[in-house]
Amino acid sequence: MINNYKILSLYELQTYKDSNFIVAIIQFQRQKVKLSKNYIFNENLSLGVNLEVLELQNTKIIESKTLAQEINRFQKLKEINLSAWNIDLRQLLQMSQLTKLSMNRCELRSAEALVHLVGLSELSLDSNPGIDITALQHLVKLTKLSLARCKLKKLENLHHLINLNELILNLNENIEISSLKYLTNLTKLEMDECGLINLEDIGPLFNLVELSLSFNYGINIASFTHLSQLTKLKFNSCKLISIDTIRSFTNLVELQLYCNNGIDITALQYLARLNKLSLENCNLVSLDALRSLIQLQELHIQENTVIYLEPLMELIKLSLLEVEFNKIVDSITFQQHPNFQNFELGHQKSQQKTNLSKQTQ
């Protein structure tokens, strides 16, 4: 029966105007309700007094302009997604019980009204260009913060957020990052396409486990080679040539280096724990440096000029290999690999890529 469920998903509905049906659903007092991308009557939402999670991103509330007032009646609400809503943040002041809030693409100009949401541990404000984030310094319980594509130039007072574990700053061009060195509890940091060159302020972040710095051209990776806890690292399209210092990251299990044309991958031989490696479009000819990566399970080397796959023969854990658009000449020999006995080179058809390495037998 429907009242035995705790999760309700209505993602597939495009337009649903049967208010009686919505009332019936809410009256079962769901703990989690998803109404994303739907049209609903917000006067019915207030019936869900026990709701804990409410997702309303991209939802059209019709016949009322008082959405925030209705939501304030949810005394047990802990998580809410209001992305793509143009809403006055001041109407959320009573929701001090919230722990997770997403307001991406909401045309916000300031985060000032959020200072009253002192219980927040996760906050996403992506794609609010020009937003003033100064007030976020008061949300000291934050552990996850996402501010991608906000046209930020400085990280005003974020150094107060000492409990942050995850910080997403992608697509903030030429951002000044000196405040980062104080966020020593960070375990995950993403700053793709931020126009970064000098990365010295990342150096003190010894607890980082995941780091993504893709599309930052000309960065100097030598300044943080002592981040020994890193397990996932992304340097895609950074115009890297020498990566000799990457040998210091001996705990890496996942590494992405695609679109670094002419990169010297010799140092990869020291990353014995790698199980996922991406080297697409790097103008590679030889894979000799990969012979020692005995833990490797996935390898992506599309769009290179690799001739021989023989260096991979001893990588017995390798089960996913993508090699389209290379110059492989030993594909038949490679069929002796225990996981690729059905290996065949594919062909380009109508400008579409096809898998050159297929399934395991």
UniProtKB/TrEMBL annotation:
InterPro entries: Leu-rich_rpt, LRR_dom_sf, SDS22/Internalin_LRR. PROSITE patterns: LRR. Keywords: Leucine-rich repeat, Repeat. This is Leucine-rich repeat domain-containing protein. It comes from Hexamita inflata.
